[in-house]
Design a protein that fits this description.
This protein has 204 residues and is of the alpha+beta class. The chain has three helices and six strands. Strand 1 and strand 2 form a beta hairpin. This is DUF3615 domain-containing protein.
Length: 204
Amino acid sequence: MYFGGLYDDDKFSDWMMGICSPPEVDQEEEYFNHDDVPDEFNDLTHKEANDCCKSMKKVCCRKTIENGIKWMSEECFLAFTRSTENFHSEGTGHKFSELCCQCFSVEAHDKNFHHFNFTVETKHESSDFWTSELYFAEVKQLSGIKSYFCSLLEPSDDGHCFGCKNQGMHELKHPTRGGYEVGNTDTGFPFMDESDDDCCELGY
């Protein structure tokens, strides 16, 4: 054990003895009888404990959601900036706007893909206004290697994807011209459990 910059085995032994050995109690001391506690007090204590646990769980879920949205937003913008399709002209600024929806699919033990819809705001140097456009992005992992794909979406785009469709994500738009993973009839998310509490769903 580490004490004050020195390893002291004797102090470690004393510390362990203090934990393992209960304090001496005067036999004459009057003990508190738990049977004397009113049932109303116990019920209140249990209720408060349950409420506290629920509150802590909600805080944990909120933090998980916030971290998830932050991470996915960063992945989307990385896909946008890496895409060879986006010819960023001089004097044009871009900033991530909003994550609209997402769907994660597993096709095999060594292959998965994550589809996103998100918006990016663009401003030309000669303008004072930002314009927002909707994009599709895919983050794919194949045998541990990650790749990115991104495409500007047109109002008429209506591409197909088994992975998103099988999970009920019909609102997630895909480019009609393809260029992304569509999976197969069995592709989905294999770890879904209908009995799980839905408080941690990302809502996207």
